[in-house]
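Researcher: Structure for this, please.
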Amino acid sequence: MPEPLHPDDPPEIGQYRVIGRLGVGGQGVVYLGQARDGRYVAVKVLHDAVSDQVLERFAKEVAAARRVEPFCVATGTAGCSTAVRAA
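Model: Predicted structure, token format:
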């Protein structure tokens, strides 16, 4: 189960409605998101100050997730190093 959102969490990230927090780690926060078609996705938002090494590792994570069969992992369709927070 996702944790409740914090007051400063975004209600939307890109095309996904943010439902809750799945976890927080050294790279950033992972949210449970829901696409407009109802699919649930994991949305990872990197911390504001990350190194080039972290960005490279994140890009590798995204690439690896795309190679995994969909029934094994949350669908990964996009990755970027910054989140667009809804106003």
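Researcher: Any notable elements?
Model: The helical segments are 52-67. Residues 52-67 form the longest helix (16 residues).
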